[in-house]
Structure formats: structure tokens, C-alpha cells
Write a structure and sequence with these properties.
By secondary structure, this protein is an alpha+beta fold. The chain contains ten helices and five strands; from the N terminus they run H-H-H-H-H-H-H-E-E-H-E-H-E-E-H. Helix 2 crosses helix 3, helix 6 packs antiparallel against helix 7 and helix 8 crosses helix 9. The protein is elongated, with a radius of gyration of 21 Å.
């Protein structure tokens, strides 16, 4: 019968966190606290280290689809649900932060929020984050949903949604399920059409993000707005 090692010898991750704080722990040690125990012949820290190596990063592990996640040794449906609950809490925390301050003051939080919201989707979605005059979030909403490779976006409907939200500005985002966050020519043309349409009702387009598991690309940073 194979025994399961729960923690390595020496200071345990939970004890280390309480004594020194979370920043003192490695990614593998933090993950070990969530995993609680390891797999066959390995501690929770060993399992955490193996999972980070297998997926390439903590982010890739958290955003993995259920099939890929559950296929990894030591994981399964129960742990997938627990990880998804944690990701949802992270997303809601970032959303609360962005509601209380200008998005221009927290550009990385905007990126993180959009990546947590969109990167794991298996189909394309188009999202609008409507902002007030102080660039605080009024509402963020999924306007259109498509297929694995494309979605149809109608400027008229976007303008109607912006007016309904009484928005002064907007940030757009859509995902690429392929995993490559690279804007296409059609993405550029769509953004230009939306910018022109919204300018007629005095709503400013601040940015358009393309989100994928591999990263997030900003139109504004690329000089595409």
C-alpha cells in the first residue's frame, strides 16, 4: 500500500505563512496550502511544484479548462471546483477595487480582472466595461457571444448599451480561445467603427483588450486607437 506524505520535514507552509506572512512562501508552498495533501509518494509542496512545472505557471494552472486540470496527477473534479471558486473570489475582489477608483489609476488590475473573466472561455465573447466621467466602473457586461473562432458585434447595439448605462467612456475586451492574444485586422476595423459610432454620442473608447491564456494585448499600448 502506498503511503501519502502530507508535508515535508521542517517548517510547514501553513506554519510558515502564520509566522512570516504569505510573501515568504514560494508559489509551490502557497499552492500546497490549497491542495492540503500531495499524491502518491509526494508531499503537497512537491505536488504544487510539479503542477506549476506541468502547466508552465500559476496563472495557466488556475485558468486551465476542466479536462486539462483533472487530467493532471493529483487533481480531480473536487479540486477543480475549489480552484474555480478561488478564481471567482479574486475576480470579484478586483471588480470591487475597480469600482472604487479610476481604471486609469489601476491599469494592471484592469488587465488581471479581464484575464480572470475571459481567458478560460472556450468561445469568443465581447465585453464592454462602461465608465462614468471619473472613469469608475458603472457596469461591465457581455454584449455578444460567438463561436470558437469569431463573434458578431453590432455597433448600433453597443451604442444603445452605452446610452442605457449613461456612460462617459468605455473599455472593450474580447477573448481568443486559440490562446494567442494578437489583434486581427478585423479586430482593428471593428474597434475603429465602434470608436466612430460612440463619438457621435460623446462616449470615449479608452482601450480594447484582446485576452487569451497566453496574455493580454492593449490596443491603446499598440497605438491602434
Amino acid at each position: 500500500m502506498t503511503s501519502i506524505k502530507h508535508w515535508p520535514t521542517g517548517e510547514r507552509p501553513r506554519e510558515k505563512l502564520r509566522a512570516r506572512g504569505a510573501d515568504a512562501l514560494s508559489d509551490a508552498e502557497l499552492l500546497a496550502i490549497l491542495l492540503r495533501h500531495g499524491g502518491r509518494g509526494m508531499s503537497a509542496v512537491d505536488l504544487g511544484r510539479d503542477l506549476i512545472r506541468r502547466f508552465g505557471s500559476i496563472g495557466a494552472l488556475l485558468l486551465a479548462d476542466e479536462r486539462s486540470f483533472c487530467a493532471a496527477p493529483g487533481l480531480g473534479p473536487a479540486r477543480f471546483v475549489e480552484m474555480q471558486a478561488m478564481v471567482a473570489l479574486m475576480r470579484r475582489m478586483l471588480r470591487e477595487t475597480l469600482r472604487d477608483a479610476s481604471v486609469l489609476d489601476s491599469p494592471q488590475d484592469v488587465r488581471d480582472y479581464l484575464k480572470l473573466s475571459l481567458a478560460a472561455r472556450e468561445y469568443e465573447v465581447f465585453v464592454a466595461v462602461f465608465l462614468d466621467t471619473q472613469h469608475r466602473i458603472l457596469v461591465d457586461t457581455e454584449l455578444f457571444r460567438g463561436t470558437l473562432s469569431q463573434t458578431s458585434v453590432y455597433p448600433r447595439e453597443v451604442v444603445k448599451a452605452a446610452l442605457a448605462a449613461n456612460a462617459a467612456a468605455v473599455i472593450f475586451a474580447h477573448n481568443h480561445p486559440s490562446g494567442v492574444a494578437e489583434p486581427s485586422r478585423s479586430d482593428e476595423l471593428l474597434t475603429r467603427a465602434l470608436k466612430d459610432a460612440l463619438a457621435l454620442v460623446d462616449v470615449r473608447v479608452l482601450d480594447h483588450f484582446v485576452v487569451a491564456r497566453g496574455g493580454v494585448v492593449s490596443f491603446a499600448e499598440r497605438g491602434l486607437l
